[in-house]
Design goal:
The protein is α+β, with helices and mostly antiparallel strands. It contains 10 helices and 21 strands.
Length: 455
């Protein structure tokens, strides 16, 4: 009897516990942290073309501060505000970046613990309260034309053993996800600008002058070494002071022309407003202010006593078949890397341990003598006549007129191109890498060689 009572008591207790467990059990077994897995990070951001501003912040361990990079459309043109509002070639690239951002999803939940942020590399680079330098991620924001925020997230480390995945966190949220990403978030200045700086075609280069000289900065005297003049005669290049047993090395010349055609910059600095204005108006050196001269000299460019603009390490002149002639002056050496080179951030600090770069000063002129003037027609009686009514004299005058019109078009197009280029170059000092400088700064021994026996 006693054993029966015990059995009933135990059974009743078990039933009660089961009922309590059922009452307290959650409706779903999936943890709350996983509820948003697979959702888009920014569901309201659906049209990549609405993005007009991209801003990326990376933490600079050298300076102990976030390093900004920004591209935006100001209603008139694309610019890079972090680089003195230099013109950007950004529409297509930003659209692709925005499309990639729209596509990211919360693929895998990884952590809700703030202590894991450093390990995942998603510490906000703008968070001044965060301790230490480790674990800082890359913060990316996108805005539309009205300034509305379309997306804002922090990209962290790559996920181990999961190619194509990065840790991602939304600022002001603790949660970290492993996210499949295929987004080009380059902050390289040269990736966002028009790469064809000179807009010159290799095949149109007809002449090159390598002026090898330097400036005595104390006396402003030119220390002339040699001028190498190279001119294209048909398909053959010839040099001044070239002996009968010498020739221009075709491989070396081809490499020089390619270097001119593909000249790429790695940084820019704005010229003073007054200097830019004078250059656009092609005002001579007499109108340059003392402040402009100081700016020039800081970059390695000087006016001689005769009023000619010269540079620290000579210059390269290029003559083209469309009448546009370029002068590329090689200025002062600039040491450094990253934003120090591309935008001048930290300029004035000791950068001797960085890479070697060099300032450029570029101008253009138009040479109308490239197109000998064709005489104009003596009369325009042929205008409006059907071909069947043209006399032999009309046909001749029409031919002469067409040649003159072609000459005028060449003049107008060449002058317009030169003016447009010169106006753009007038605003900027450019920076090129040491490797680019070495390809352009050649001498006679680099290009003039002995002919092979029997030639």
């Amino acid at each position: 009897m006693i054993e029966t009572k015990k059995t009933i008591w135990y059974a009743g207790t078990a039933i009660v516990l089961v009922i309590i467990a059922l009452l307290l059990a959650p409706g779903h077994i999936t943890p709350t942290a996983f509820l948003d897995q697979g959702e888009s990070f920014f569901p309201d951001f659906t049209d990549p073309n609405t993005a007009t501003t991209l801003e990326v912040f990376e933490y600079d361990g050298t300076t102990g501060a976030p390093r900004p990079f920004k591209v935006t459309f100001d209603g008139r043109r694309w610019t890079i505000p972090s680089h003195h509002d230099y013109p950007a070639d950004a529409r297509e690239r930003l659209s692709k970046t925005a499309a990639g951002v729209i596509g990211i999803k919360k693929d895998d939940f990884r952590s809700d613990n703030v202590a894991d942020h450093e390990l995942c590399g998603v510490v906000d680079p703008l968070d001044e309260t965060a301790m230490g330098l480790a674990g800082r991620g890359k913060r990316v924001t996108l805005h539309d034309a009205e300034g509305n925020r379309l997306a804002d997230f922090i990209v962290g480390n790559e996920v181990e053993n999961r190619p194509g995945f990065r840790f991602v966190r939304v600022p002001d949220q603790k949660r970290v996800y492993a996210v499949r990403m295929d987004i080009d978030l380059s902050t390289r200045f040269e990736d966002w600008i028009e790469t064809d700086l000179l807009e010159v075609e290799n095949s149109k280069i007809q002449g090159v002058v390598l002026m090898d000289y330097s400036i005595n900065e104390r006396t402003r005297q030119i220390e002339q070494r040699e001028n190498l003049l190279l001119n294209k005669d048909g398909n053959i290049w010839k040099a001044n002071k070239m002996g009968a047993t010498q020739k221009v090395d075709s491989t070396g010349m081809s490499q020089l022309l390619t270097a001119i055609d593909s000249l790429a910059i790695v940084g820019v600095r704005p010229k003073p407003e007054g200097l830019s204005k004078n250059l656009k108006e092609q005002t001579d050196g007499a109108a340059i202010s003392n402040n402009d001269r100081v700016s020039l000299q800081s970059k390695g460019f000087y006016f001689t006593r005769e009023g000619d603009l010269k540079s620290n390490e000579g210059e390269l002149q290029v003559r083209t078949s469309d009448g546009v002639n370029y002068t590329i002056r090689f200025g002062e050496v600039l040491f450094g890397s990253g934003m120090t080179v591309s935008a001048g951030t930290g300029e004035g600090q000791d950068q001797t341990g960085g890479a070697e770069n060099r300032y450029l000063f570029i101008t253009t002129t138009f040479d109308p003598s490239q197109f000998p003037e064709s005489p104009a027609a003596s009369n325009l009686d042929f205008v409006g006549k059907p071909d069947s009514l043209l006399t032999d004299g009309d046909r001749e005058q029409k031919r002469v007129h067409n040649l003159h019109e072609r000459w005028q078009r060449n003049i107008d197009q060449g002058q317009t191109k030169s003016d447009q280029l010169n106006n753009r170059f007038a605003d900027w000092y450019y920076v090129i890498s040491s490797a680019s400088f070495d390809k352009l700064n050649l001498s006679r021994k680099d290009l003039v060689v002995k002919k092979e026996a029997g030639i």
